[in-house]
Amino acid sequence: MAKNPYFANYLDMNHDNLYQYNNKQRWKVLLFLFAALIAAASLFYTNYLVKSLSKSERTKAEVWAMSTRSIMTMPDVDDQFISYVYAVRDSLSIPAIITDSKGNIIFWRDLDPHKTNIEEQADSVNSELEYDPVYFEKQLARMKRNHAPIALPLDTGETWSVYYLDSLALRQLRVFPYLQLSLIAIFLIIAYTVFNSIKKSEQNLVWVGMAKEAAHQLGTPISSLMGWLELVRIKFDAEDDSSLNEMERDVKRLEVVADRFSKIGSIPSLANHVVYQVIRDFVQYFKVRTSEKITFEITGDKTVEAKLNIPLFDWIIENLLKNAVNAIESEGKITINIIDNIAKEEIFIDISDTGKGIPKSNFDAIFQPGFTTRKRGWGLGLSLTKRMVDYHQGQIFVKESELGKGTTFRIILKSNLRYEPTQV
Asked: How far is CA 217 from CA 7, 9, 254, 259, 420, in A?
């Protein structure tokens, strides 16, 4: 059969060509820096506006104080000029207080009329007015913290001090950029989550379609191979030939693989199984197809049970064992330890190898689709493994790894055994 060059080149593509993993990471960093730049620019410009408005309000407070002083000290003038001075004074729209040289409150503006017991627009001398002293003291202390006082000298040699608060609009403007950025951040997070979910859903549909089509295409040649094996046995009278028996096991293994692909996207059925027996059966099949320089050992609890889907669980173990074999350059050992965590009603399955190890920076990345450190590979094995562990309502992660010494993956499954504390 002629080799399809396009398909061959497609198979040779590594993770950099398939997913551009590193480029995606760089784009994320650039987008984060761009967002940080926008946030900084927004805060800088808002701060500029706040300073400009604050300066304008201080000028208004000075004009109000001077107009108040003029009303108190001016000689008799025509009513039109007095009306003008009053209009200038009453144009201020920020809370303000004037104190004399002894710190006594003598005038105020835009304070709560219910607390000062006067009408909203009234101003008067402290000695002639009943008011809430606690409210006034709190407001004065607040104004002192807010701004430095404006000195207002009089002809008598006395100096008044003018205190004021920022207007409501200015206070809201100070908070606005933080509120704006928070709302934008919430919107972006929601949008990213939604679009990411849609993207993953689309990717899942693609993978499911490819898997089911692959299973469908494998069905015919697998059936033919089984038929050819039977014909070979009959023709050469080789019913008990060991080579043909191993070939039959491999063909049946292909049937299992095709069945796995056909069930991708469907909810797997789970049943109680002894974990040790399931792992032992697969390891016996797997180890005769690897190098004799790699030894296998299964240790731990031999009786603990968990709900498993045998084809999918075998796939999990197969992917982890293949990674372990690839990590061992010449000779080494792969150990599978089964631990029953009675207190948490969980089963720990630790798969350890004596391979080259994994850098800590890649502990999470290795489960992402397309990530691989091999020159040839699609980087899908551990991604699929994690998904199949999720199907079993379990967890998988890198428990520990040291460069040059090996790696341990841990699978956590729910145990069927229930721990009942002893009644005292």
From this structure: 16, 21, 12, 12, 50
pLDDT for res 376: 61
Token representation of residue 296: 């296998």
Residues 66-79: tens digit of each pLDDT: 777 776 666 555 55
In three state form, how does the secondary structure of 308-329 look? ECHHHHHHHHHHHHHHHHHHCC
User: CA-to-CA distance for 326 and 320, rounded, in angstroms?
Assistant: 10
Record the tokens describing residue 247, joined without a space.
């070939």
DSSP string, 152-196: EE-TTS-EEEEEE---HHHHHHHHHHHHHHHHHHHHHHHHHHHHH
pTM value is 0.50
Q: Is 192 exposed, middle or buried (0-12, 13-18, 19+ CB in 10 A)?
A: exposed
Three-class DSSP category at 230 = helix
Supply angle C-alpha 387, 257, 206, rounded to 5.
Answer: 50
Distance CA 373, CA 393 (A): 28
Beta strands (DSSP E) in 228-331 are 271-274, 294-300, 305-308
